[in-house]
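User: Hey, my collaborator sent me this sequence without any context and asked if I could get a structure. I don't really work with proteins. Can you help?
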Amino acid sequence: MSEATSSLTRAGFGYVQGVTHDYKRHGTTTLFAALNVLTGEVLASCKPRHRHQEFLSFLREIDAAVPPELDIHCIVDNYATHSHPKIKA
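Assistant: No problem. I've predicted the 3D structure and written it out in C-alpha coordinate form, which is a compact way to encode the shape of the chain:
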Protein backbone atom coordinates (compact mmCIF):
# COMPACT_ATOMS: atom_id res chain seq x y z
CA MET A 1 0.00 0.00 0.00
CA SER A 2 1.42 3.42 -0.88
CA GLU A 3 2.19 6.06 1.75
CA ALA A 4 -0.68 8.23 0.46
CA THR A 5 -3.24 5.51 1.14
CA SER A 6 -1.64 3.85 4.17
CA SER A 7 -3.90 5.68 6.64
CA LEU A 8 -7.10 4.57 4.89
CA THR A 9 -8.86 1.52 6.24
CA ARG A 10 -9.79 -1.30 3.93
CA ALA A 11 -13.51 -1.55 3.33
CA GLY A 12 -15.25 -4.74 2.37
CA PHE A 13 -18.15 -4.97 -0.06
CA GLY A 14 -21.12 -3.00 1.26
CA TYR A 15 -19.13 -1.13 3.92
CA VAL A 16 -18.31 2.54 4.10
CA GLN A 17 -14.59 3.28 4.03
CA GLY A 18 -13.23 5.33 6.93
CA VAL A 19 -9.91 6.77 7.98
CA THR A 20 -7.70 6.19 10.98
CA HIS A 21 -7.02 8.72 13.75
CA ASP A 22 -3.71 9.78 12.13
CA TYR A 23 -5.18 10.66 8.70
CA LYS A 24 -3.67 13.82 7.19
CA ARG A 25 -5.01 15.79 4.22
CA HIS A 26 -1.50 16.42 2.86
CA GLY A 27 -2.29 19.65 1.07
CA THR A 28 -5.71 18.80 -0.32
CA THR A 29 -8.11 21.67 -0.73
CA THR A 30 -11.84 22.24 -0.92
CA LEU A 31 -13.31 23.81 -4.04
CA PHE A 32 -16.47 25.87 -3.58
CA ALA A 33 -18.16 26.81 -6.84
CA ALA A 34 -21.31 28.63 -7.94
CA LEU A 35 -22.77 28.54 -11.45
CA ASN A 36 -24.73 31.35 -13.06
CA VAL A 37 -27.05 29.21 -15.21
CA LEU A 38 -28.00 32.18 -17.39
CA THR A 39 -24.46 33.13 -18.47
CA GLY A 40 -22.49 29.97 -17.66
CA GLU A 41 -20.14 32.03 -15.48
CA VAL A 42 -18.59 30.17 -12.55
CA LEU A 43 -17.57 31.81 -9.30
CA ALA A 44 -15.06 29.58 -7.53
CA SER A 45 -12.92 29.68 -4.44
CA CYS A 46 -10.47 27.17 -2.96
CA LYS A 47 -10.32 26.90 0.81
CA PRO A 48 -7.97 24.81 2.96
CA ARG A 49 -10.84 23.27 4.94
CA HIS A 50 -14.54 22.45 4.53
CA ARG A 51 -16.17 23.84 7.65
CA HIS A 52 -19.17 26.11 8.04
CA GLN A 53 -16.83 29.11 8.39
CA GLU A 54 -15.36 28.57 4.91
CA PHE A 55 -18.77 27.89 3.39
CA LEU A 56 -20.18 31.05 4.97
CA SER A 57 -17.24 33.01 3.57
CA PHE A 58 -18.02 31.64 0.09
CA LEU A 59 -21.71 32.52 0.44
CA ARG A 60 -20.65 36.08 1.26
CA GLU A 61 -18.46 36.10 -1.88
CA ILE A 62 -21.50 35.09 -3.93
CA ASP A 63 -23.62 37.78 -2.27
CA ALA A 64 -21.00 40.44 -3.09
CA ALA A 65 -20.73 39.29 -6.73
CA VAL A 66 -24.47 39.21 -7.51
CA PRO A 67 -26.38 42.44 -8.09
CA PRO A 68 -28.76 43.15 -5.20
CA GLU A 69 -31.86 43.12 -7.41
CA LEU A 70 -31.29 39.48 -8.40
CA ASP A 71 -32.37 36.45 -6.37
CA ILE A 72 -29.86 33.75 -5.46
CA HIS A 73 -30.98 30.11 -5.39
CA CYS A 74 -28.65 27.68 -3.63
CA ILE A 75 -28.75 23.93 -4.16
CA VAL A 76 -26.51 22.06 -1.73
CA ASP A 77 -26.20 18.51 -0.49
CA ASN A 78 -26.99 17.47 3.08
CA TYR A 79 -23.39 17.70 4.30
CA ALA A 80 -23.36 18.97 7.92
CA THR A 81 -21.49 22.14 6.90
CA HIS A 82 -24.46 23.25 4.77
CA SER A 83 -27.01 22.83 7.55
CA HIS A 84 -25.10 24.55 10.37
CA PRO A 85 -27.28 27.10 12.26
CA LYS A 86 -25.01 29.99 11.21
CA ILE A 87 -25.43 28.99 7.55
CA LYS A 88 -29.21 28.82 7.88
CA ALA A 89 -29.26 32.24 9.53
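In plain terms: Confidence is low (pLDDT under 50) at residues 1-7. You can pass these C-alpha coordinates on to your collaborator as they are.
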